[in-house]
């Protein structure tokens, strides 16, 4: 008999398609597999809150019908869109810039697109991102 349970993703390897969940109740980690995910697998990050049906598998506790309950706020677009977020200065390593403002903006834009429009393909995200970064650089919103 499967029991509806809540927990937090400890780790999930998108490439291998499996990981583990720390259930809110109990002390044994629960195995999770990509075939049992309700949402897109890239959304299941360390710390993601999930609900799942707890079952006993051949090798121990196993999760099925795993769905996200809460996504990390670090990947959500702020109210008012990206323009509402202050510009982030480039990181410095030994006095040198390691990430340009355009690269930082591109990363934030990619995360926003992934979180906002889950049906976009990787190629579509690249095309939209390149267009928006070009516009932002041309208007001086980010430095190249």
From TrEMBL:
CDD domains: CSP_CDS. InterPro entries: CSD, CSP_DNA-bd, NA-bd_OB-fold. Signal peptide: none annotated. Residues 4-68 form the CSD domain. Pfam families: CSD (PF00313). It comes from the Bacteria. This is Cold shock domain-containing protein.
